[in-house]
Design a protein that fits this description.
Structural class: mainly beta
Strand content: over 45%
Shape: elongated
Amino acid sequence: MVLLGSLVYLLSLFILTPAAWWLKLAPLPADVRLGLVQGTLWQGQLTALRYQSLELRSIQWQLKPWSLLTGHVLVDVQAGELAESQQPYLKGRLRYGVSGLQLSDTLLRYPVAQLAPMLTLPLPIDADGQLMVDIEQYRQGEPWCQQLSGQASWQEARLEPPTGWIDLQHIFATLHCEDGELVLLTDGDNPLGLDVSARLAAGGHFTVDGTLKPDSSMPEEVHQAMQFVGAPDDEGRYRIRF
């Protein structure tokens, strides 16, 4: 009876302890900033989470208690509201165990205008639209991944080079994991003829390598803007690499 009572007491303590206390024990990176934390480990919310210049707001989570029996922590997470199209949104399922972090059925939407300043581009360009990332499966590895499958798209894509705003419609890509690096691939089947491989390597080093070949249906401003990229090859493709 004493043993049973002790187990019940420890379980109750584990369940009812505020989430803010548990987060103090979490080994978060130094540049991660947390807002106000409410609720418990099982169900709670965080007003904001900021990493460098990226931010998610109104984060809610619900932990699945039965997952602890399998030696994993399984959590459903949502941040933001889907209807607020100009704000970041996240909804997905997170699993964490001895093998690291896993994601499944996870959707992220982020305004491109907030991401563009983070990229080192070969010419000054502003961007607009929504980045949509749909992750089917992700498994943590070194330096970033062991497994990754999913899609990404740039919805209502717009660029503003020195010649003015250009409407690029929509650009689609697939997500992969190669040698532990996160890889995004486009196939050139888009109005800009964007056929590139973008990689996130160890140390957060981001590279892009590929070509551009704007469709003849694109506005004249698009073709004029290619002069800032360089000279075309024999097939009319413009090399981009940074």
